[in-house]
TrEMBL record:
Organism lineage: Bacteria, Pseudomonadati, Pseudomonadota, Alphaproteobacteria, Rhodobacterales
Family per record: Belongs to the CobT family.
Keywords assigned by UniProt, alphabetized: Cobalamin biosynthesis, Glycosyltransferase, Transferase
Main enzyme class: transferase
Highest rank taxon of the organism: Bacteria
Function: Catalyzes the synthesis of alpha-ribazole-5'-phosphate from nicotinate mononucleotide (NAMN) and 5,6-dimethylbenzimidazole (DMB).
The protein's name in its UniProt record: Nicotinate-nucleotide--dimethylbenzimidazole phosphoribosyltransferase
Record's signal peptide: none
One Gene Ontology term from the biological process aspect of the record: cobalamin biosynthetic process
PANTHER family named among the record's database cross-references: NICOTINATE-NUCLEOTIDE--DIMETHYLBENZIMIDAZOLE PHOSPHORIBOSYLTRANSFERASE
GO MF, one example: nicotinate-nucleotide-dimethylbenzimidazole phosphoribosyltransferase activity
Enzyme Commission (EC) number: 2.4.2.21
Pathway as given in its UniProt record: Nucleoside biosynthesis; alpha-ribazole biosynthesis; alpha-ribazole from 5,6-dimethylbenzimidazole: step 1/2
Pfam family, one: DBI_PRT
Length: 333
């Protein structure tokens, strides 16, 4: 069992993360060059297939067992009027996930993915971060561990999603702390101009109350339990060499905490989509990731990433299913 009981231990786990399998990657690159198509004609699908092959440790893999994990948490700052919806919606949506009625249920089914929901201490919101850290060290480690342990070691692809009223405020605060600047705040569930001004003020107060520190310290100070659990799941997948599709603004804020802590921590991740939450494009730039889809989604739950599973499956179907020039008797150029 990996020790995840302190930020120092988590830091060590991130530093010990495995790399991709270079032989599988080289084999996939070689195979890609022999497939019956003009070189590069499948565009980014080719890069995706080669990237996936490296993490799968197989030059000719397929995606057969994707997993979607949805984490839910409540936020102390939600009491400050930063969302268009009340905090009870977090719990109500968890019931909806469990009954199969949310968008992520449909998109997980459609992608052939197993899906689990983890509700993290919903009766105990995190502390209001305008007054000090949202979570203690023990709380953030517990949430991170829940995420890490939720990853199915037999999964061959992971999507992490979230539900937590107020969490676009938490995510924007994290990005502001880690990347600087002051224009990372968006409208989340659809706050009006007054709500947006309240969010900006809450984030400014949160930064003042929590001086900038390392990625994991920022996660504890300004994050939430579901955000920490997503970070834990992304890192746990890496320890198992399971590739990850990142979702929108909140998922990427969790991922950014890992990258801030350990430069290559997201090498096993691709960006599933570009969220309509204003600053997501710049956030993806900071992560060095290009989104697979851009459909104007601003939902979270893992929805955009779950939809992008199909793109990755398509890339692998071509890569692993196509004939080579020699096999098909097609003249190479
Ligand atoms: C019914 C409903 C379903 C959702 N599913 C995801 N979110 C999204 O909205 C929330 C973040 O926005 P804010 O920071 O403005 O509260 C998160 O729970 C996120 O997952 C939802 C929000 C609502 C209302
Ligand atoms: O991009 C997201 O994940 C997002 C944006 C708005 C609201 N909830 C989630």
């Amino acid at each position: 069992m990996t020790d995840l009981t302190s930020l120092t231990a988590i830091r060590a786990a991130l530093a010990a993360a495995p790399a991709a399998d270079t032989a599988a990657r080289a084999g996939a690159t070689d195979r890609n060059g022999q497939l019956t198509k003009p070189p590069g004609a499948l565009g980014r699908l080719e890069d995706l297939a080669i990237w996936y092959a490296g993490w799968a440790g197989d030059a000719r893999p397929r995606i057969a067992a994707p997993q979607v994990l949805v984490f839910a948490g409540n936020h102390g700052v939600a009491a400050r009027g930063v969302s268009a919806f009340p905090p009870e919606v977090t719990m109500q949506m968890v019931a909806n996930f469990r009954a199969g009625g949310a968008a992520i249920n449909q998109l997980s089914d459609f992608a052939g993915a197993q899906m689990q929901v983890h509700a993290l201490d919903l009766d105990t919101p995190t502390a209001d971060f305008t007054q000090g850290p949202a979570m203690t060290g023990a709380e953030v480690c517990a949430a991170f561990t829940t995420g890490w342990n939720a990853v199915d070691r037999n999964a061959d692809l992971l999507v992490t999603g979230e539900m937590g009223i107020g969490n676009t405020t938490s995510a924007a605060a994290i990005v502001t702390a880690l990347l600087g600047g002051d224009d990372w705040t968006g409208r989340g569930t659809g706050v009006d101009d007054a709500g947006l001004a309240r969010k900006q003020a809450v984030i400014a107060a949160g930064l003042a109350a929590n001086p900038k520190r390392s990625g994991l310290e920022v996660l504890a100070a300004l994050g939430g339990r579901e955000v920490a659990a997503m970070a834990g799941a992304i890192a746990g997948a890496r320890a198992l060499r399971i590739p990850v599709i990142l979702d929108g603004f909140i998922c990427c804020a969790a991922a950014l905490c890992l990258q801030a802590e350990e430069a290559g921590a997201l090498d096993h991740c691709v960006a599933g989509h570009l969220s309509a939450e204003g600053a997501h494009a710049r956030m993806l730039e900071a992560l060095g990731k290009q989104p697979l889809l851009s459909l104007g989604l601003r939902l979270g739950e893992g929805s955009g990433a779950a939809l992008a599973i199909q793109v990755l499956k398509g890339a692998l179907a071509c890569h692993s299913g196509m004939a080579t020039f020699a096999e098909a008797g097609v003249a190479a150029g």
